[in-house]
Write a structure and sequence with these properties.
Radius of gyration: 22 Å
Number of helices: 19
Distance between the termini: 17 Å
Strand content: 5-15%
Bound molecules: uridine-5'-diphosphate
Structural class: alpha/beta
Length: 457
């Protein structure tokens, strides 16, 4: 009897850990729970040589092949091109390469689908070209997906820039959205990325389905509203890494701290703060007299240690209560550690989910992209976060850092933080339930997997 070969899915991860992590988790679920095989395709350049990127790829289980696209030249772009242009140009120019890779795999007869993340939308049309199902993994929340899908109508209803629109925006199932909280290329018509944002909105509609890294209990309104739309939308999250067995100095340091006593401060895989802001954070943490673990990255510092620009004597003065980590910490393990009691976060979506699954309350300090929108949702709706208030000149002053830390770590009496912690624990349970057998995300994913299988038979 001939052995039936496992269905195969190709997943394209855009540059950045925030995309690679959920794409890799999706591939793992397919392989471990559904007997698929998968290829994870990454781009060379950008951050692809970082140790975190490489170690994630090398830890993928058997059944997943990782493949790095050859270097794609963008030397013809003007040297002042903004951050997103090199990435979007690279993705657009990768299409012939992806076309060949997919065609080659298709000849084996097992290629079931091609999945891209939201930054890789420009590559989605390749699926149609070679005749396989093209899906999108949306790596942020449902509310943001609603904005993306309704963008043309949203822009039609206003005459000004969305950022200046005085009234809250309304979308089906979503609570009020403030125009100024939207990503810059969307809220500002004269932004160089604005046309690209509108074009992308039309590509979303080309997907055979959209998988969202969120879950129904977290955003019931927009999840329900999008369910009945087209293309079909599937809540399959949270896709977060299992807590690995790792050893790191900061984890050993946490082992020596009392339970729920440490505030973890981190701004994602790319977020760097200005030198002036780093100074305010340092002095604010010190003023708060709380225990802290701070992942520091200062803009423009390159490889030189960020600790060098911190206020003189700060590291020495706080060494009994605090730890400063350069550039990167094993975040999932830190958030899962019993000593961690709160998380000051930029509200990148992966960080939000990781905080939720570990039941850790947050202080929301959004920097860019859709982070302000995530922050509003976490503070006002999910209510697992307190807000950090931005002062003049785009700087959060040391007094405010101190106040936010105290509110998050000591504010039990005010009721707000006790509620945030209770909500964080509730959300942790809801997240676990969603991905368990018969949970909403598990069922939605099984439905997609069923479609992928049946397109081969
Ligand atoms: N991350 C980490 N250590 C760090 C910084 C980031 O492990 O020091 C991981 C974090 O756990 C998350 C991802 O990198 O999974 C960052 O994604 P997120 O969406 O939070 O933010 P982005 O980096 O995309 O702004």
């Amino acid at each position: 009897e001939q052995k039936i070969k496992a269905p195969h899915v190709v997943l394209l991860a855009s540059p950045g850990m925030g995309h690679l992590i959920p794409i890799a988790e999706l591939a793992k679920r397919l392989v471990i729970h559904h007997n698929f095989t998968a290829t994870v395709v990454t781009f060379s350049g950008f951050s692809s040589q970082s140790p975190h990127h490489l170690s994630l790829l090398s830890s993928l289980p058997a059944g997943i092949t990782s493949l790095s696209l050859p270097h794609i030249s963008i030397d013809d772009l003007p040297s002042d091109a903004r951050a997103m242009t090199p990435i979007s140009t690279t993705i657009a120019r990768s299409r012939p390469l992806l076309h060949d890779i997919l065609l080659n795999l298709k000849s084996s007869g097992t290629l079931a689908a091609f999945v891209v993340d939201n930054l890789g939308l420009a590559a989605l049309p390749v699926a149609k070209e070679i005749g396989v199902l093209g899906y999108l993994l949306f790596t942020s929340c449902f509310t943001m997906l609603s904005v993306e899908l309704h963008l043309p109508e949203l822009l039609d209803t206003v005459t000004c820039d969305l950022r200046d629109h005085p009234d809250p925006l309304r979308l089906p199932g979503c609570s009020e959205i403030r125009g100024r909280d939207l990503p810059e290329p969307i809220r500002n018509r004269s932004h160089p990325g604005h046309r690209l944002a509108i074009y992308q909105s039309s590509v979303y509609k080309e997907a055979a389905g959209i998988l969202v890294n969120s879950f129904e209990a977290l955003e019931p309104g927009p999840a329900e509203a999008l369910k009945s739309g087209s293309p079909p939308v599937y809540p399959i999250g949270p896709l977060v890494r299992a807590r690995p067995l790792e050893s790191a100095d900061c984890l050993r340091w946490l082992d020596r701290q009392p339970e729920a006593s440490v505030v973890f401060v981190s701004f994602g895989s790319a977020g760097a703060v200005s030198r002036a802001q780093a100074e305010e954070i340092a002095l604010g943490l010190e003023m708060s007299k709380n225990r802290f673990l701070w992942v520091v990255r200062v803009a423009g510092q390159g490889e030189s240690p960020a600790a060098r620009v911190l206020p003189e004597g700060f590291v020495e003065r706080t060494k009994e209560v605090g730890m400063v980590v350069e550039g990167w910490a094993p975040q999932m393990s830190v958030l899962g550690h019993v000593a961690t009691g709160g998380f000051i976060s930029h509200c990148g979506w992966n960080s939000v989910l990781e905080s939720l699954v570990n039941g850790v309350a947050m202080a929301a300090w959004p920097l860019q992209h859709e982070q302000p929108m995530n922050a509003r949702m976490l503070v006002e709706e999910v209510r697992i976060a307190v807000r950090v208030r931005m002062g003049g000149e785009g700087l959060v002053r040391r007094e405010e850092v101190c106040r936010a830390v105290r509110e998050l770590m000591e504010g039990e009496e005010t009721g707000k933080v006790a509620r945030a912690r209770a909500r964080a624990r509730e959300m942790r349970e809801a997240a676990v339930k969603a991905v368990e057998e018969e949970g909403s995300s598990c069922r939605a994913f099984a439905e997609v997997v069923g479609q992928w299988r049946s397109c081969l038979s």
